């Protein structure tokens, strides 16, 4: 997403500005079509990370290209400051706002990632990340790789929706409610809801490998992107400091299990995550100092979750390695590794 704003003591997320759909059945103005669209994401952003993971798991890299905005932005929006010349190499723009304004002249809402841009026109098609995840899974099936998982199995969709809604309000958005609260009471309310939900999720995951059923679903993608950023950003920067993720044994093992699953950890850049949160949110961290820690090598340690069974990709198979241009820096090996 972009830099969140709220005029109340409690943080309220801004509505999305371009909520279109990309469908295969003609129900929207934007048809499924290979190589027509470019997904603009940012390694720092959990909302964008969700869509990047879904794209990886489904094998859509050959038909939807990926542009990565850098971790820093200002009031003008996300920008491509890590790309040569500071512009996206396909769209030729410096600021993501340009693509929003191509779609809606005078655009005055949030400039957020993820955003899907039509390459030929340079227009943002949609920034509706939740619809986008579902549509990639259900509308782009003709382009899925062989062995792609079913992230929204029909028999579990109601349960996925229920769990995902709880995770969104109390965890995904809950950490932001803590970090951007403008009053003590609002902060404590969000803090209590966050850790109550994490405790409930720990109990749920103590006896099962994944959140819903015995395979990875969208509910796992949704929870995991927040867990992946918890110790690097939310624990300190957003004052979610009852305990680190590493001090919550079940969630820490669950998070490592997914990190070591192809399609998850290979989308994460911890340095960009820290650069964004600590470098952009001046109202929370006015010095802009980015912490050196935490030690992230623990993500590669054994998790032991295999004992719970489960089939990560159902009847399918893991994705291959990411394209060379999309690879993230490898983590240091744990201190006790050979």
Produce a short descriptive summary.
Helices cover 34% and strands 8% of the residues.
End-to-end gap: 39 Å
Please identify the structural class as seen in this structure: alpha/beta
Shape: globular
Indicate the mean pLDDT: 94
Number of DSSP helical runs: 9
Order of neighbouring strands in the sheet with most strands: 4-3-7-8
Number of strands: 8
**What's the gyration radius in Å?**
19 Å
Strand content: 5-15%
User: Low-confidence parts, pLDDT < 50 over ≥5 residues?
Assistant: none
The biggest beta sheet is recorded as: 4 strands, mixed
**Oligomer type:** single chain
Order of helices and strands: EEEHEEEHEEHHHHHHH
What share of residues is helical?
Answer: 25-40%
What does this structure look like?
The protein is an alpha/beta fold. The chain has 9 helices and 8 strands. The chain has helices at residues 46-58, 97-103, 129-138, 157-172, 174-179, 184-205, 218-237, 249-259, 270-280, and strands at residues 22-23, 30-31, 37-42, 65-69, 73-74, 77-78, 115-118, 123-126. The model has no long low-confidence stretch (mean pLDDT 94).
